[in-house]
Structures are given as structure tokens and as C-alpha cells.
Amino acid sequence: MGVVIPLDEGKNKMASVQPLVDLTKGDMERVNQLILSKAGSDVQMIPEVANHLISSGGKRLRPMLTLAAASMFGYAGDHHVKLATSVEFMHTATLLHDDVVDESDLRRGKSTARTIWGNQASVLVGDFLLGQAFKMMVEVGSLEALDVLSSAATVIAEGEVLQLSVAKNMETTEDDYLEVIRAKTAALFAAAAEVGPIVANVGRSERNALRSYGMNLGLAFQLVDDALDYGGKAADLGKNVGDDFREGKITLPVILAWRRGTAEDRTFWRKAIEGGESDEANLQHALGLITRYGGLSDTIARAQHYGTIARDALAPLPESPWKSALLEVIDFCVSRVS
């Protein structure tokens, strides 16, 4: 059983993505239609695998960021729809690849594609979706947008490899961990937000503001995700509580508990994470150590810090419903632990 993390700020408990959902509803319908169209193939297994994950209930926050970041500057074309779809395909491909690398059995409460169709199919369908994403980027005809998203794809892949290099290594530092999540998660948030002002053809300052917003929102989002693995509920996570522990992932709650613990505590962590002794009893002991040494509360504090940076990034921009919705997304991401 996880440890539910309380938050002090009452406003976060009421935060919602609904304002962003409402504002992007029309464009998201177009994105969803394009997703279904571009996920199609004469090779039967491709749409089966793709639709298994695409239809599994994710909030599609990243493509909504692209739509909002273009619309807040008055963009009225359709390039942002294609780029938002590209962003979602990049994200979906990453999930398919992640589940193979992590040997995950559950994603958003459903069996992962790899457990149904196998690892090879999951990787290859992920590659297909990446190919479709880049085709849509080319159709948009913006070299700047193509540069931002293709660079993000490279950084994400580097993050995957970096995570492998630090897996089950208790000497991993907080800086190492932040480098991984900046590459694996935050880079796509940043790119998704940045391509909006690019297609809206606004200035560099607006583009930088949205990129900073996306990067720091992504860091906050992943920090909360990693706290939820030890302090959430399976129904909310869409996976089992403690999966990161069982897979030997080095996340911030573990890093903090390791560095603040006793020699005896560090012996436990080496056996559990590096030695793979991750049974239920050891998970409960790990939860106790993480709670004792403030691993959860301080991880959430870090998330709130990056959320504040994301909020400050948007501060110079004119007030609008779009800006308000993007700001509320920050509170929503952090409030997921409440």
C-alpha cells in the first residue's frame, strides 16, 4: 500500500486540466481524427498495436500544449493540428519502447502491448509511429518546427540510454537523475509547447517563454510521477505501486532516502535495488525509509519549485484564457499527489 502525500496548498487540490480541455476541444477532435487516420496501415498488426495504446485513456496533455501554445497567439491555420498529432505519436512511440526496455506489464491500467503482441512488434510499431510523425512535420513545411521536434526525438533517445546506464546504480546523484528526466520527459513537453509559437510566427521571446514553460512543467510532471510510484494508488497510477522499485529504477525518492540514511539503510538499498531483492516485504521497508527521510515530501517540493519556474516563464505574456489554462495545468500536475 502506498503512502498518500498531503499537500499544504489548498488551491492545488482544485486544479484541473478541464479549462485546457475545453479550449482545445475543437482542435483536439481534429487531432484525434488525424491520429486514427495516420495510425492506419494495410499491415493489420500496426493499427491493432497502435490503437491499443492510443485508445487507453491518456489525457493527451502534450498535444493540447501545442494547440494552446499556437492558439494563444491567434493562430488559425491547421499546422498546429499536424504538429500536435506528431507530438502525440512521438509520445506513444516512446511509451511502446519504454515498456519493452522496462519489461512493464501494465500501462494506464491495461496490459502493455508487449505482453500481448511481443517486444518486437511493440518496438517496430513505435518506429512506424515515429515515421508518421516526421511525415506530418514535413507536411507542415516549417524547418524550425522540424528542427525542434527532431532534436527532441534525439534527446529522448539519449535519455533512454542514459537511464540504462544509471539503472540499479545506487551511486546515481540527483544531478544524474535530473539529466535523465530532462531528456526522457521534459524535452518533449518543451518541444510540444515551443512549436506552437513557431507556427504562429511570433517572436523569439514568446517562443523561449513557452519552451521554458514546457521544460519545467515536464520536470514537475515527472517528479510527481516518481513520487506517486511510492505514494500513490494503483487505480490512479495505471500501474502497480512500487513498479519503479521492482524494476530497480533510481528515482529521486530513493536517491534522497539513500543519501540521508544510515550505513544499514544503504546496505538494504544495495540489496533491494542493485541485488534485485524487491519482494513485497522489502517494498514496504523501502516505503518506510523514503517516508522517514522525507523522500516523498522533498520530491514534491522539487516539483513545486519547477512548477514555479514554469509559472514565471509565462508571466510576461498577455493575460488570456489560454494563459490561465496553461497556468492551471501546472497546479494540476503537482496536485496529482493530493
Detailed description of the structure:
The protein is mostly helical and 338 residues long. It has a domain at 15-222 and 310-332: Farnesyl Diphosphate Synthase. The chain contains 18 helices and two strands. Strands 1-2 form a two-stranded antiparallel ribbon. A hairpin with a 2-residue loop joins strand 1 and strand 2. Helix 5 packs across helix 10 (174-199) and helix 11 runs antiparallel to helix 17 (295-314). Mean pLDDT is 90; it is low at 1-13.
Number of helices: 18
| Name of the CATH first level of the domain at 15-222 and 310-332 | Mainly Alpha
Question: Remind me, CATH topology of the domain at 15-222 and 310-332?
Answer: Farnesyl Diphosphate Synthase
Overall radius of gyration: 20 Å
Alpha-carbon distance between the two ends? 16 Å
Q: Give the averaged pLDDT, no decimals.
A: 90
Describe the global form. Answer: globular
Portion of residues within helices: over 70%
- Write down the secondary-structure element order: HHHHHHEEHHHHHHHHHHHH
Q: Beta-sheet strand percentage?
A: under 5%
EC number: 2.5.1.90
GO molecular function: all-trans-octaprenyl-diphosphate synthase activity; metal ion binding
Protein name: Octaprenyl diphosphate synthase
Family: Belongs to the FPP/GGPP synthase family.
